[in-house]
Amino acid sequence: MTAQQPAPRNIKPLILILLISLAPVVFALLAYYAPALGLRPQGHTNYGALIDPQRPVPSSQALPLVSREGEPFDLASLRGKWILVTADSADCPESCVKKLFTLRNSHASQGKNVDRLARVWFLIDDQADVSPQLLEAYKGTHMLRVDADELLAFLAPAAGPADRDAALKGPMWIIDPLGNLMMAFPPDADPISVRDDITKLLKNSRVG
Predict the structure, then answer these.
(1) Contact status, residue 174 vs residue 82, Cβ threshold 8 Å
(2) pTM (two decimals)
(3) DSSP H/E element including 193
(4) In the CATH scheme, what is the code of domain 49-204?
(5) Cβ–Cβ under 8 Å, residues 115 and 126
């Protein structure tokens, strides 16, 4: 009786295992050598510029603040919240209204996290009062009178006196719950990108 020859082995499973093993290596090579494919991770995803090193909020003696009603106000009273900051004159031109609108809507869109945020509008060197329309539209915003030069030393210390107005009235900022100025948004910032940055901060933060 002739012995039966063994059936030839099927090597397809072996080839499949080899391809699966090589896939991460191929992916990494493509990501490195072919960035146009969009496989390489981005270095950062935040829209606003991180402030490095972060600057702590000055004491109430170094940065005296007064409410619209004339009462002293200490920013330390908002410690524990993320503070969305803008600065402008009380007459609030269109560029100012856009910033207030961006911060209010970014705040309101945070759903269950709205109580983790506060908004501050620094009224720069201006004894005029805010219009009733703005008071109603941006109810809940802390509107605080402040000396512009003292505020500049905190928000934009690298700016010179000649650039004071642009340095204060252009950007928007975020102060973290520990009381540190930690992010600045550019002038004429995109509202959606500002909102998304705030959402990411709240999602990833264990404080505030």
Answers:
(1) yes
(2) 0.78
(3) helix 191-204
(4) 3.40.30.10
(5) no
